[in-house]
Hints:
Blueprint: E1 4-9, E2 14-19, H1 22-28, E3 35-37, H2 40-49, E4 56-59, H3 62-72, E5 77-80, H4 87-98, E6 101-103, E7 117-122, E8 128-133, H5 147-151, E9 153-159, H6 166-181, E10 185-189, H7 193-207, E11 211-217, H8 218-225, H9 230-237, E12 241-247, E13 253-257, E14 260-264, H10 277-289, H11 295-310, H12 319-331
Parallel strand pairs: 1-5, 1-9, 2-7, 3-8, 5-6, 9-10, 10-11, 11-12
Antiparallel strand pairs: 2-4, 7-8, 12-13, 13-14
Helix pairs in contact: 3-10, 7-8, 10-11
Amino acid sequence: MSHYHLYAIGNALVDTEYEVSDELLSAMGVSKRHMTLIDTPQRAELLTHVQGLHARRTGGGSAGNTVVALAQLGGQAFYSCRVADDELGAFYTQDLQANGVATNLTHTRPPEGQTGSCMVLVTPDAERSMCTFLGATAQLDASALHQHDIEKSQIYYMEGYLAASPTGLEAAVKGRQIAIENRVATALTLSDVSMINFCKAGLEAMIGDGLDYLFANEEEAQTWCGTTDLDAIIGQLSPLAKTVCLTRGPKGCIVVHGSDRTEVPAVPTQAVDTNGAGDMFAGTFLYGITHGNTPTQAAALANRTAAAVVSQHGNRLTVAQMQAIHTDFQKV
């Protein structure tokens, strides 16, 4: 029997979200809609621009959001990551535990340094632009893996952002090999256009000779494939995984499973903040898959939770919100 429905590895980041104008975003020199890695001096400079603005602080990180979504729906999840011995590190660890996610952080004493953080800048059009200071997570390595827990999981999930870290990438690929050797399904999210543009070789290493599940949004898929032609994109992505989920915002998503291609409509909503939408989709989809849903059913549930999270500010929903959505979905 499996200990966990999902075992994931990714960057531990504490999100601090600000609502900003397009003019301020431009003045800060931030690339809109994408993730940009920043260092300590850059972070200090960016913070001067948002002084006095209301800030929301939450646990974050792409795969972190995904495991929390799955756990909030009632699934069992384990998250391998790295924080530092500071206030943010304690906050992040406690946040995982509060959401019922098991983690390597409770087994090891964190090192000195600074825990990773992400400035999330949300413009009036609901787009999120991210400035990520990796801090301690830049040294995430294979010591964060719990081999026996990978072996006893249903799905092993990798965050594409790890392609930017040599040690993080090595750890993700090592975990993938453990999963394959133990017949554990594998999954990857492409994460961001910047990873495809600058770290594609790392993503290809995570894909290896094929995955069970691949997640990408439309812009990422277009960048990966070098085309906007949907048929050509699906033709290029489908050999990479047994099931491909192509999310398309208000156009819903396309699930490619073997020779089957299903368009799953979006849930109409007024988007105010797209931060966390893809992570929410992946976590909900994988919950559905590990709880008896077909890929199409899992995607329909995932579209509901993604619609809910973009209709509010912040990267996550509450347990009550998630379970209410799930309850309503089961009535359909």
